[in-house]
Amino acid sequence: MTGPRLPRPLAALAGLAASAALLLTCLAAPASAEPGGSAAPGEGAPGTIVQVTGAGWPAGTSVHIAVCGRLAVNGSVDCDAAGAVTAPVGPDGVVAGGLTIGAPPVDCPCVIRMATPAKADRMIVDVPFTVLGHPTSEVVKDAQPVRIDLVDAELRGGGSWSELFGWRTRRTLVLTVRNNAPDPVKDAPLVVGWGEGATADMPITAPPTGTIPPGETATFRVPVELPPASYGDFVVGGRFAGQTEFQVAFTTYPYLLFGVNLLALLALLAGVRAAIRRRRPKTRGAAAPQPPASAPAAPRHLQRSALLAHLDAAAQRDGDTLVIDRSSLLTYLDGPPLLDTAALDRFLAVDGDTTPLPLPSDPSTPEGGPDEPR
């Protein structure tokens, strides 16, 4: 016996509701596949970029990726925390990220650890990886991790004549560390670089570190050399044993080179100014009136014969009389005060009038004058 049938529209709505409930149930069910991961390439020296991919991870979360030594049996203390990256998981559960391989703080065998955030249901996948050049030793569970403390980091040198003239800038990084772990540290990697501003991204070859006994300190000296004409603010930094970071800032300016360039610029400007002044026409005041070409300049020591000679050349004849131009006479007498012109004016002026000088007597004329009887 069957119950009453629902109207056709209500039956359609009920079917849609059942389908939606089934779809939500499927989405809420956890994925049965376990997360996985891979790395390409599977080996590389520090500085190698590795593409890490994985599938089956919870959608919407993130995965922490880091290279670890000693198979990461002691957790994050075995990993290169400074070089770790975080990659998001897509809707399809796929994660991908690029990891720059660093030197883990402990010996290999090494892995690339992929892990979700620390929760009760945390997922961890370790992908085997070989760090070329990194030491390898036996894995000991619960071994004390490496603990390297920074004692001092400083730059020495600078201020040489070559640096002040813009040649190569040289410094020496002096790094002192202490091994506070119960075990000796052997051949721990020392990564050093320099850079402009605040990022030390230019690598520098560092010396081998050797063995540091427990509780002992070790000092390393790393030469630092910048290219010519470097000036401004710089830093030198890096990591020791993959965990102990350090950074030192310094400033360099080629002051003497700046001074030489400034002097050269001033000399160039002075030469240009002198050339312009030579080409510019002179605009001084009007020239003083020159005496007639026929009248000679006043002698240093005025003599009576010289004065009479000038008067003969410059005076105009008016019959038997010589008319003297006062301005011409003063021009002739211009120069050092060799003659009392005021006395001469008094001699020439009679009652405000200029008295013409008589013509010199003719040597052939008798002493009594032309009107006297011979």
Largest sheet: 5 strands, mixed
- Poorly predicted tracts of residues: 1-32, 362-374
Net shape: rod-shaped
Strand order of the largest sheet: 2-8-7-4-5
N-end to C-end Cα span: 197 Å
Computed over alpha carbons, the radius of gyration is 54 Å
Average residue pLDDT: 75
Helical stretch tally: 6
Beta-strand percent range = 25-35%
The count of β-strands is 22
Order of helices and strands: HEEEEEEEEEHEEEEEEEEHHEEHHEEE
> Percent helix among the residues?
10-25%
Query: What is the structural class?
Result: alpha+beta
What does this structure look like?
- This protein has helices spanning 8-28, 161-164, 255-279, 304-314, 326-332, 341-348; strands at residues 36-40, 43-44, 49-55, 62-68, 85-88, 95-100, 110-115, 124-131, 148-156, 169-179, 185-186, 190-196, 202-204, 211-212, 217-226, 232-240, 244-252, 316-318, 321-323, 349-350, 353-354, 357-358.
- Strands 2-8-7-4-5 form a five-stranded mixed β-sheet, with no helix packed on it. A four-stranded antiparallel β-sheet has the order 13-12-16-17, with no helix packed on it.
- The protein is rod-shaped, with a radius of gyration of 54 Å.
- Strand 18 (316-318) and strand 19 (321-323) form a beta hairpin.
- With 374 residues, it is of the alpha+beta class.
